[in-house]
From TrEMBL:
The protein's name: Uncharacterized protein
Superkingdom: Bacteria
Length: 46
């Protein structure tokens, strides 16, 4: 993923988390006992 695409993805994730849109779409994943799939770790630094 190039830097511009990464920045767009992080910006969208930030907006979705701030507005609860992420929870509206994916909140059910928090209740699953396990997840099978790939993940990308996104860490924020102040």
């Amino acid at each position: 993923m190039d830097d511009d695409a990464e920045a767009r993805a992080v910006d969208r994730l930030r907006r979705d988390l701030d507005s609860d849109a992420w929870d509206d779409r994916f909140g059910r994943l928090r209740e699953q006992p396990e997840f099978v799939g790939s993940l990308r770790l996104v860490a924020g630094h102040p």
